[in-house]
Amino acid sequence: KQEVTQIPAALSVPEGENLVLNCSFTDSAIYNLQWFRQDPGKGLTSLLLIQSSQREQTSGRLNASLDKSSGRSTLYIAASQPGDSATYLCAVDSNQGGKLIFGQGTELSVKP
Amino acid sequence: AAGVIQSPRHLIKEKRETATLKCYPIPRHDTVYWYQQGPGQDPQFLISFYEKMQSDKGSIPDRFSAQQFSDYHSELNMSSLELGDSALYFCASSFRVLAGDGELFFGEGSRLTVL
Lengths: 112, 115
Fold this sequence. Notes:
The complex is a heterodimer.
Chain A: E1 4-7, E2 10-14, E3 19-25, E4 32-38, E5 44-51, E6 56-59, E7 62-67, E8 72-77, E9 86-93, E10 100-102, E11 106-111
Parallel strand pairs in A: 2-11
Antiparallel strand pairs in A: 1-3, 3-8, 4-5, 4-9, 6-7, 7-8, 9-10, 9-11
Chain B: E1 5-7, E2 10-13, E3 19-24, E4 31-37, E5 44-50, E6 53-57, E7 64-68, E8 74-78, E9 87-94, E10 105-106, E11 110-114
Parallel strand pairs in B: 2-11
Antiparallel strand pairs in B: 1-3, 3-8, 4-5, 4-9, 5-6, 7-8, 9-10, 9-11
């Protein structure tokens, strides 16, 4: 059974810092991995999608990497801003059917 | 760009009542997914539909049912509501994962409160 874990559960950094959020999964047989952002009480905004055959994806200040063999993904946020404060969730699709298994998320706070 | 539309955004019901949530996927998307997110929890997959047929099923209670209609919108029906059903219900859509990259796009969610 696929399990997804995110570390740390919460992170507080000063504005301008570069930071890394970690995601690990127990079964390396995945179809893709998706990173989401969720503001309190709001919906999930897709940030980056990495296919199982890819190593990384970039969008603006965000870079996500995938190491399938070790069951790990990282989300790198460069030059963090207060507007980046939110919960970041990673989710794995193991059966190519869109049934995502989510991690518990990392709550990020960027202080001005 | 058009996004996934969910209605209602907020819903308050009494125990044992029935609730219906609606989801309108992104145009041209043919697959709809329902997820439930309890307070402080990560989203849990409930059910999905592809071309109006159920394609996968997760931890959806027997009291819940869902369907996808000819215009691709979907409805989640919840009966005999319990306090534990209070949650944020998300709908997501995608273009069929086998043909596309499998990226899911989520709506803003419908917050159900059961009193």
